[in-house]
Amino acid sequence: LLDSLSDADLITPPDVSASVLREALKNISLVVGPENVELYSKETMKLDEEAHYYNLPKEHDMFYVLEKDVFLASAVVRPGSTEDVCAIVKLANKYLTPLWPVSMGRNLGYGGSAPRLRGSIIVDMGARMNKVLEVSDRDCTCLLEPGVSYFALYDYLQKNGFKHLWIDNPDLGGGSVVGNALDRGAGYTPYGEHFSMHCGMEVVLPTGEVMRTGMGALPGNNTWQTFQYGFGPYPDGIFTQSNYGIVTKMGFWLMPDPGGYQSYLFSFQNDTDLPAIVEAIRVLRIGMVIQNAPTIRSTLLDAAVLAQKSHYTDSNDILTDMEIDKISRKIGVGRWNIYGAMYGPKPMRDLQWEVLKNTFMQIPGASYMFPEPLKEGAQKTVLHMREETLKGMPNTYELGWLDWTCKPGSLLGFSPISPATGIDANKQYQMVKQRFREFGFDYLGTFVVGWRELHHIVCLTFDKSDPDSRRRAHRCIELLIDDAAAEGYGEYRTHLCFMDQIASVYNWNNGASLKFNEQLKDSLDPNGILAPGKSGVWPKRLRGRGFEI
Ligand code: ADP
User: Fold this and answer.
1) Residue 446 CB–ligand 1 contact under 6 Å
2) Contact 292/343 with Cβ under 8 angstroms?
3) How confident is the model at residue 370 (pLDDT cuts 50, 70, 90)?
């Protein structure tokens, strides 16, 4: 395999010649077996026509917004154990071949499994390291390898006598539990803040040493998955959205079945209701009357889950308020829609419901709904779909909205954080709507109510087969990042192509934060081999050499 491509075809990373890359991969194949090393060139890039959620390309981003070969890997390697990972990391230090670890690489809208630095070797952690290592009935915890998806964990619990333990999945169930928590993703049950619900990590450091965090640092401990902190500085956070280590095991807390559950939908008729909704929801969320992270979804996001734009209108233009009103009536949702759930026995839920109903029904035109049993052959409503998600049943319904304007559609994620106030939500909404209008995109979005803040998840869908659509998508978000920063808003996560830009707006006190990150990087990864450029953090060897974009 290593000889199947000519030197000129190889995607060599900076400072690495074709023969050195070949030698590095030859040595890695001695560790993992030649069947677990795949080499890429521009010619072998997976054809997009064959790619879908369950068959994503590993070497490039399926939703490429820049040219397809900008974020292109040289190879993928599939370790089978922590020892394999250590050996790969040591070889990378020897040959200076950059590594880009992913768990399952389904990071849709943020770059998939593609590396930030062209020519990096993808370390596909999930391919073979995909076991549920432990589940504790008593403590309601688990210890996972990176290749365990939400579907797999759910299945494992169902089939192994742990039906009473719930999981918390994000919108799509095919991603990695470990990978999502490491990118600080979120779900929708009371355990939705994934990083907060992790407990203990095993990490291969950029020099090839293995470390366990928290109680895992104490040999023979019996609390690695039950106490998060251990002793001394708490390092877990620096392994998220970072390039300081490769996580090989991670512990999580699991929610015991709460003894009752009811999902609900509150619909609001007016586009202008958003501030009132947010003002009301903040108080209930911080006060824990609302136990989970509810979402406030726009009409078109719901419409898009159910069908393409062409199903609703002949127009290719941005939809007007009147047209959106018409769609909202057609699909039976409002202009804004709170999807939430109550957890616990009925008497508890009844009390909660009184408060929710009395609060939200004060907004003129508000209505509510519970999911009805589905009639034979009827299409599920978004409420039916959210009912599953909100109780930790993994699914892939939300793939639907990707195809809003074309099939297959592509996604570029834009996810600023704001205070959970009406003024801020509205400012954010107007800011995005204005830019979307300028660049020709319908606003599809949702405000996820975390604890005290909103994750504004803006779903920009574009047509990657049209260079103009890609250019507009890219420019639109580039401008929005600056618009947002000018108002004091920053993104919680981003696509590869905006990592440098976003790192540069988090620049309080002369960029003290980025300087700190770079200092850590240089000390932990002196050869600069691990995920160069992740979150805008470049190692000394590659910094300022024109790789930032
Ligand atoms: P998912 O498939 O759940 O979307 P990914 O595997 O794509 O998650 O992971 C998201 C991001 O998190 C990756 O791009 C990478 O930066 C980081 N990441 C994932 N797994 C690991 C890991 N095991 N060690 C270090 N970083 C990781």
Assistant:
1) no
2) yes
3) very high
Question: For 272-315, what is each residue's pLDDT tens digit?
Answer: 999 999 999 999 999 999 999 999 999 999 999 999 999 999 99
Out of 212, 297, 386, 493, which one is annotated catalytic? 493
For ligand 1, say whether the CB of 103 is within 6 Å of any of its atoms. Answer: yes
Question: Helices in 61-197 by DSSP H: which ranges?
Answer: 82-95, 125-128, 150-159, 177-182
Does ligand 1 come within 6 angstroms of the Cβ of 122?
A: no
Instruction: Let me know whether 193 and 288 are in one domain.
Output: no
**381 shares its domain with 464:** yes
Q: Alpha-carbon distance 145 to 29, whole Å?
A: 22
- In the reported structure, the alpha carbon of residue 380 is separated from the centroid of ligand 1 by a whole-number distance in angstroms of 31
Q: What is the pLDDT of residues 84-140, one digit of tens each?
A: 999 999 999 999 999 999 999 999 999 999 999 999 999 999 999 999 999 999 999
- The answer to whether residues 470 and 462 touch, using CB atoms and an 8 Å cutoff, is yes
246 lines ligand 1 (CB under 6 A): yes
Shortest-distance Cα residue to atom 4 of ligand 1: 107
Show the tokens assigned to 17: 């010649």
* pLDDT above 70 coverage of the chain, percent: 99
> Is 110 annotated as catalytic?
yes
The CA 113 to ligand 1 mean position distance, Å, reads 8
- Name the nearest CA neighbour of 321 among 269, 279, 275: 269
How many A from CA of 408 to the centre of ligand 1? 24
Q: Are residues 299 and 442 in the same domain?
A: yes
The reply to whether 547 falls in a domain is: no
Beta-sheet pairing, 445-449 with 453-462: antiparallel
Note the pTM of the prediction, 2 decimals: 0.96
Q: What pLDDT does 521 receive?
A: 98
Asked if residue 204 and residue 164 are part of one domain, the reply reads yes
Question: Chain-wide mean pLDDT for the chain?
Answer: 96
Catalytic residue from among 40, 64, 95, 110? 110
Q: Which domain holds residue 193?
A: 130-256
**Could you check whether the bond before residue 408 is cis, i.e. omega within 30 degrees of 0?**
yes
Same-domain check for residues 309 and 399: yes
Class of residue 27 by CB neighbours under 10 A (exposed 0-12, middle 13-18, buried 19+): middle
State in Å: Cα 420 to ligand 1 middle: 28
Give the ligand 1 atom nearest the CA of 531. Answer: 16
Give residue 44's pLDDT. 78
For residues 207 and 273, membership in a common domain is answered with no
| 375 DSSP assignment | P
Ligand 1 atom 5, closest CA: 105
Six-digit token pair at 530? Answer: 């691990």
Tokens read off for 472: 């507009």
Catalytic hit among 150, 244, 429, 492:
492
Distance 183 CA to ligand 1 centre (A): 6
Provide the number of structural domains found in the chain.
3
Q: What is the CATH number for 140? A: 3.30.465.10
CATH number for position 52: 3.30.43.10
Q: What is the pLDDT of residues 378-398, one digit of tens each?
A: 999 999 999 999 999 999 999
